[in-house]
Design goal:
The chain is of the alpha+beta class. The protein contains 6 helices and 3 strands, in the order ααβααββαα. It has a 3-stranded antiparallel sheet. Helix 1 crosses helix 5 and helix 3 packs across helix 4.
């Protein structure tokens, strides 16, 4: 993986390391666009706290924002999610090999009693 792409994924994981931000992104992925006020009510945190969380998500390019009158409407950003998926797929061989070794060890243990 190129160094710049690796740093991008690190930023995505850093942004998602907070449970509130993770929940906000999950909500946007599951339910579609939501206003900042709706997200703030769902998370049961103060408006300034939600604003900070949304800023981190925007800076990581995990969400987009559009303005509709007085409302700020947020949506999940599919391209960032593809980057996470790509990272996970690039490491699949590691996990598959480890799981294969575990299965072989368990089978050997069963055979040997």
């Amino acid at each position: 993986m190129m160094e710049s792409k690796k740093h991008g994924v690190i930023g995505l994981f850093a942004a998602l390391g907070d449970p509130t931000r993770f929940a906000v992104l999950e909500t946007l992925m599951r339910e579609g666009e939501r206003s900042a006020g709706e997200l703030q009510e769902l998370a049961d945190i103060s408006p300034p706290a939600m604003s900070r969380h949304l800023r981190v998500l925007r800076e990581a390019n995990l969400v987009t924002r559009r303005i509709d009158g007085q409302k700020r409407i947020y949506a999940a950003e599919p391209e960032a999610l593809r980057a996470i998926d790509g990272w996970a797929l690039s490491h699949r061989g590691f996990w598959d090999a480890g799981l294969d070794r575990l299965a072989a060890a368990l089978e050997a243990r069963e055979r040997n009693g």
